[in-house]
Amino acid sequence: MIRRPPRSTHCISSAASDVYKRQVSRCVAVLPFQMEDAMRRVVNQEIEEGEEKPEEKGHKKKEKGRKEGKKEEKKEEKKEEKKKEEGNEEEKKEIHVLEVTRLNNRVLDLRVPANQALMKIQSGVGKYYREFLYNNDFVEIHSPKINPGVSEGGTQVFKLKYFGRDACLAQSPQLYKQMGVCGDLTRVFEVAPAFRAEDSNTNRHLCEFTMLDMEMAFKSHYFEVVDLLGEMFNYIFDQLAKNYKKELAVVNEQYPFEPFIWRTPALKLDFLEGVKLLKEAGINQNPLEDLSSESEKALGAIVRKKFDTDFYILYRYPKSARPFYTMRDPLDENYTNSYDFFMRGEEVTSGAQRIHDGKMLAESATKAGIPLETIRDYLDAFKYGPPPHAGCGIGLERIVKLFCGIRNIRKCIMFTRDPKRLNP
User: Fold this and answer.
1) What is the DSSP string of 274-340?
2) Contact at 8 Å (CB) between 348 and 296?
3) What is the pLDDT of residue 92?
4) What average pLDDT score do residues 337-363 get?
5) Which of 84, 204, 210, 265 could bridge 396 with an S-S bond, Cβ 3.0-4.6 Å?
6) Given strand 159-162, what is the order of strands in its sheet?
7) Residues 203, 182: contact at Cβ < 8 Å?
């Protein structure tokens, strides 16, 4: 069954508009930007991206003009005055507040109705995530965020000194949630910050974000976990469409977006099926390598056209694309019992069945270049016969971004932490 939000989600009512607009102060001259400009409808969201012009830029131009001669300077000044006097109304309507200006003044920017709505939708995602898992006998856990070693492999961690010892901020609760399953907490989840020292200045990456993590034991096949996750996402989508109509309408009024479409049950595609679909569209994809961002986008468009859904699951990824703790496919060593979930052609979660054999796990960690002593407690947990299990990590902000068709993830988090931003 194909799911689409009600039409009212995309047409703001005057009542909803009034409620939100009463929450902000009207234009005040001393503000860093005018609220009217910050609330203006933006059809092309790229227009808000770009570098903020330093105040001194104008002074430098004037200084240069003086050197070239007062006559030229006066001519330029007259042109500027004439432009202002004309008071072109159309030009005024096209004034947009840049993203960097918004982020520098985030407290004020949060008063914009669309941004308030995005924060409430983000809260709703967290609420329905918890609600679904509690209703399916999961236990919420809280794992350490200062760790002795990496959890995902690689070097993209924030390193620090912990009373003279080397430590790092948690990339995810991966190792600890698995240790919980090893301790007979067979279904666990967590909502917590995650930290990635990844120098990616894109519109979908952050250095600190909120991770929705889960892990569960299964009986026969890892698809038990995949199917439950598909049900969970559909539950979140259904509840947002039902209970956040007003907020979605407010976002849509300022940042128009195509209705998000999903189907029940969620569409599942084998990785090689995805490769085949790309090939039919004239896109070459190595079946033993991960998809690039461009290939993911292209596949998302193909799936939407062919299957009428913006949400789907791609499973059985090649081993080169997965972390050390991922279980290999028993029928083909080149592939894994893994999966990614996509919304509008962007990955929103990544997960897999985990290796639950201690010896195999240690060998895989060594091959990945991870010093075994830094994950000794994790490895020791597998000495006592853990059940087969699988799980995933979901970016909370990405769900909001993609459900609402927002281009830049920085709109979907209260305060941004990326490679260029540590304030406010």
Assistant:
1) HHHHHHHTT----TTSPPPHHHHHHHHHHHHHHHS-SEEEEE--BGGGS-TTBPEETTEEEEESEEE
2) no
3) 47
4) 96
5) 210
6) 146-147, 165-169, 159-162
7) no
Q: Give the pairing of strands 187-195 and 139-140.
A: parallel
| 177 CB-contact burial (10 Å; exposed 0-12 / middle 13-18 / buried 19+) | buried
> Cα separation of 324 and 418, whole Å?
26
Q: Catalytic site residues?
A: 196, 198, 204-205, 347, 350, 398
Can you tell me which residue has the tokens 């469409």?
A: 241
pTM: 0.84
Strand partners, 111: none
The tokens for 354 are: 């985990």
Asked if the model's pLDDT at residue 385 lies above 80, the reply is yes
d(CA 424, CA 414): 10
Bridge partner list, 336: 328
What is the spatial distance between Cα 136 and Cα 224, in angstroms, rounded to a whole number?
A: 13
3-state secondary structure of 352: strand
Give helix 113-134 / helix 396-403 axis angle, nearest 10°.
Answer: 120
Which residues on adjacent β-strands are paired with residue 342? 312, 347
**pLDDT band of 15, cuts 50, 70, 90:** very low
Tens-digit pLDDT profile for residues 297-316: 999 999 999 999 999 999 99
Mean pLDDT (whole number) for 204-229: 97
Per-residue confidence band for 76, with pLDDT thresholds at 50, 70 and 90? low
Question: Could you tell me the CA-to-CA distances from 239 to 20, 56, 242, 298, 399 in Å, in that order?
Answer: 21, 49, 5, 28, 13
State how far the Cα of 260 lies from the Cα of 403, in Å rounded to an integer.
6
- The residues with which 208 forms a beta bridge, in sequence order, are 195
One-letter amino acid identity for 305? K
- Do 316 and 327 contact (CB within 8 A), yes or no? no
Average pLDDT score over residue span 55-70: 44
Q: Is the pLDDT of residue 63 over 50?
A: no
Q: Is 90 exceeded by the pLDDT of residue 1?
A: no
d(CA 75, CA 395): 54
